[in-house]
Amino acid sequence: MGCECSKFALYYWTGQSGPIYEAQNPDEEKDEVSDLPAFREFTFEQLRIATSAFAVENIVSEHGEKAPNVVYKGKLENQRPVAIKRFNRSAWPDTRQFLEEARAVGQLRNNRFVNLLGCCCEGDERLLVADFIPNETLAKHLFHWDTQPMKWAMRLRVALYIAQALEFCTRAGRALYHVTGKGLALYHDLNAYRIFFDEDGDPRLSCFALMKNSRDGKSYSTNLASPEYLRMGIITQESVIFSFGTLLLDLLSGKHIPPSHALDLIKDRNLEMLTDSCLEGQFSTDDGTELVRIASICLQYEPERPDFKSLVAALYPLQKEAEVPSHVLMGISRDGETMSLSPLGEACLKTDLTAIHEILDTLGYKDDDGAATELSFQMWTDQMLETLNSKKKGDAAFKNKDFRAAIECYTKFIEVGTMVSPTVYAHRSLSYLMSDMPQEALNDAVQAQVISPVWHITSYLQAASLFTLGRENEALVALREAAILEEEKNAAS
């Protein structure tokens, strides 16, 4: 691993473990986030639609439906992917308190955060809306990796970026305190499950833990708690720094090690037990020793711990591969670059509408779960016969590439409203695209997804519509979602 334990221990216990130095930040992170919409209040109906009526398939919480506050993946009316946290009904009975906290957190915008976009407060419902970040949590990549362990350079980048996020939080909280006289912004539950990797592979800190989770106004930490938290039951700035020390231990060891046990290992010079064996040869003795030193002073029993400004300064010199993009270090393919796409995905990426038509025409109604059975048991009234004939005429026009006629026939079928078919919406969506009506095509693709949330065709058609509308970034997100859904479907079949 390029480091001997004796050198680690000698460095730590020979008086070189004093306070972390103050240093000029050579690459100070800009706080502004230019592409985020203003914080807003959503209606419950808007968020119900965004999550396909809070469909189980859209749950992304670590513990699924059993989580005390369930998080759903959703999509707003402008197709922006979001994460929506729905609190337990017993949480936040005080409407004003919830709105005040949500609005305050919504003002903390930074490129190191998964930023809060809005909230909902109707009746007993309390929901938060944040940007959706696609590439899993630090816990997944660090503890439960499938293909390769996280590289040393990436672990150090995580440490730096999260320290930057928390340092920004501290500065913004102080500024807010001077203006409002209210408490500082504190991060209530820092752990590996709160850190997500965005489309570029960069780590971001979830904004959800900036809000308290309790109706009594207290915060409850599920992380290895600081001594003062255990003693008084409250989170302080020193508690957050202690939690950051436990995060550094996670990054160093690749597993959960209680702080007291980690400090005992350092004292006993048994650092092989502390360091992830997967990091063999990836770092020098000096860099390993420095990270241990930083972690240990964050974990001091008495709350005389460094602040985040000095932690950021101390972590900068350890960034030895700063020029390598995060997605390369993480082994994450970026949207539209090395994404593995099926023929349908390739057709959507190129907006090859003719190829899309051939694939949809061949697929027919195979993915219309239950639709054929439902149609066969309908009452055969004159109106029903006319409705079914409209669908048949639409299918014939679609097959013969008479897309204007297909739109007219499918619309008659849809407007009757007695039968629901995602495939009909998909066919009409492509017919709109073929007729140079991309916004109508997008609307139909979204409606098909509401009916069938995990049907990959709907996301592919959304991607093709968004590409046609010139909304490339959103189109790439939809394309990636479609590819993932298609892969999951193929794996299950």
UniProtKB/TrEMBL annotation:
Membrane topology recorded in Swiss-Prot or TrEMBL: Lipid-anchor
Family: Belongs to the protein kinase superfamily. Ser/Thr protein kinase family.
Entry-linked SUPFAM superfamilies: Protein kinase-like (PK-like), TPR-like
Name of the protein described by the UniProt record: non-specific serine/threonine protein kinase
One GO term (biological process): brassinosteroid mediated signaling pathway
Organism this protein belongs to: Nicotiana tabacum
Annotated gene: LOC107798439
GO CC annotations, alphabetized: plasma membrane
Keyword Phosphoprotein: no
Gene Ontology MF annotations: ATP binding; protein serine/threonine kinase activity
Main location class: membrane
EC number: 2.7.11.1
Reaction catalysis annotation: L-threonyl-[protein] + ATP = O-phospho-L-threonyl-[protein] + ADP + H(+); L-seryl-[protein] + ATP = O-phospho-L-seryl-[protein] + ADP + H(+)
Subcellular compartments: Cell membrane
